[in-house]
Amino acid sequence: MLATPADNPYQEPRSGRLTAWGNALLAGACSPDDAATAVQGTDDAHRVTGLPGDEPDALHGLTWALGRLRVLGAKGLRLALPVAGHPLGLTGPPAFNALALGAGEAVLSVGVPYGLVPEVEVYGPEGDQGVRVLWQCLPVNDALPADVPSLYEAERELADGLRQATVLLTRLDVAGAGPETLRALEGFRRRGHRELLAPGYPPHAVRVLESARQVSALLGIAAAGHGAAVSASEMATRREILAPLDRTARRAQVAAYNAIVDERD
To answer: What is the pTM of this model?
Structure first.
């Protein structure tokens, strides 16, 4: 079974972890082993295929793959979080964009025209499942990523978005969500800063990312159908109202993960 970021609004995208810890490694702020361990997290294994110069079926661990990208000239990594109609963070070509859109996420290297898209496999019986991730490396266009704001632009948009989210989610009676969902949201809030980004990132980026993920978590609850809206027309209205907030939150997440690279440039 393949999984995407939409399956769990509280989970950090794997491409985000690779971007953050890959940037920390490339900046000399952490060791290769620490970066690989952080990116893998609780997954069973991460492998990379398609690196330049490799045989078609060659597989490598994260440590080797990140080292290879550095040798090729990678100076940093950028996150992409595309959805249909909004290729956020992508540069093309169409083949790479289509793969990234299917995954809902991707990582683009800076300084060398390659990108990585994760294929996440969840396997095993219910209650005893494991996760394997295969990163596919493909050529990308050397161009500015689509629709990525600066960190300061993202922060301003989020401030407005948080105010709107409070009003809209109250109107939609998200307070009536089930106890399990509300417990999950409270657990997300309690985690605070400590799980966000990686060594070397500015506190400003951490604050923006925390706000963006809070908005995404709230939207995940609303989109799941909890609360007062129960009819098909009401659910359609809910999705239409919340779509701009989702766009704002994703733009802010990308800006935060890309802060080291974009602010340096």
So the answer is: 0.86
